[in-house]
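W.,

You were right to be curious about this one. When I first looked at the sequence I had no strong expectations either way, so I just let the prediction run and decided to look at it fresh. Below is the sequence, 481 residues in total, followed by the output.
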Amino acid sequence: MLMIEGVPVDRIVQKYGTPLYVMVESEIRSRLRRFKKTFGPTISLQYAVKCNSNLEILRIVREEGFELDCASVGELILGLLADFKPRQLVLTNLFKSEQDLYFAAKMGIQAITADSLEDIEHIAQTAKKLKKHIDIMIRVNPMLQVGSWSSRGNKYGIPIGYIGRAIDLARKSPYVDFQGFHFFGGYVYQTRVYKAAARVFVKLMKRCFDRGIRVRRLDLGGGFPAAVGDEHAFPIEKMKDFPSYFQRLMDRHGLPPVDLIFEPGKAIILNAGIGLMKVIARKRLGAKSRMVNVDGSSYNFIPDTLVQGAIKVSEGGLRYDVLPATQMNAPRIHSVTIGGNTCDCWDLMAHGVELPKLHAGDIVAIMDVGGYAQVLANNFNTIKRAAVVMISPDGKMRLVRRRDRYSEMFAPELDVLKLAGPNELEKYNNLYRVNVDQIWKEGGMTKAERKQNERAKKAFETAERQLAVSNKNGMEGNGRR
């Protein structure tokens, strides 16, 4: 039996059901501390909320001394709900509405990152309307090539040849306060990429300095790849010399100190998540082809597999480790495809996985799903998204996100179409929540339990009659239903 922090997975599933995300708190904290130790006190660290925005995870991030890099006003609000101060939040994305800018300016967040010349103009116009000063960072595409890595096809940032114009746009606005530069490198696998980027940005800061423009902040982004399956993780400890390397560059050009920032996200959270699913069927599709269907899916549970196109491992696809959680010691006797539970042919989560002979009810664990899975998951086929459990080092578990409710899933349509009322939805919800095991046990119920059950049934029947009358009156009143 697979154990997570000493707790057998069958006990976790019995309590919380499947599919289920299990987040390991000790893994999250150890990686946060690893980044803090590597970079030391001279570099600021901001967790990239887009990777996993669960409030309990944000609370842990705050306790470990990180700030937040937010990609939307929604993420800013989550940061505030997790007790971050506004000055600990940065808004970084490609587009902000006037309402977004008003909210960020009103809250007094640390800075807003401008991604294009048009974005700078939009921020300047909105700040003038609001008569509110806005601190901005300008995201730069350094058009850099280092080995096989390149930023030249990157959709983020202003190409470096236009940065002089971008700075002038920001500085001529009386309500925009230029603070510094931002860099988005994507997945960076080698430390030399960051050193090359640092050299470009130090020269850029020197140009600003010579024009009398003070640069106070430099954000070199995230992009530290975490390992999925047999992939290689970014060697974060090799960045230990980066603070001193950067300081030597600054001293060489005679520049004053800046606030240097990195934004790890996936590297913090990815490997801390384990997905638990139940086998619902196994199918032999030929002499060498086997399928195992589970109660999770690549839409509602592990969407990264859908983004990757469910490519076979032999063709360069993403390889998640899939473990037979209730048969860990059984011999792996054949290769299978893991298929999800939705009505879609793309719903395949893993190919070529060596597993033992599994049966309906067995639990499988899919590893390394802490990053992006929860925030990308959707309600395709009108299926509820999974619950999330946080497990502490002593084995204590706490629910940090419950499963969806149908009322939440339907609300955007019900609110505007008025096709059904809350009482009608509640009727269906109550019927769906019937405990089937309890029905079978009714024959052995005590007299008191039978009376209590009878009272509950009568109350439900009364509610149904009242609902029927209400619906009849409603149809007679508007003649449309």
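Here's what jumped out at me. Residues 27 and 272 are 5 Å apart (CA to CA). And, maybe more interesting for your project: The longest helix spans residues 447-478.

Coffee later to discuss?

I.
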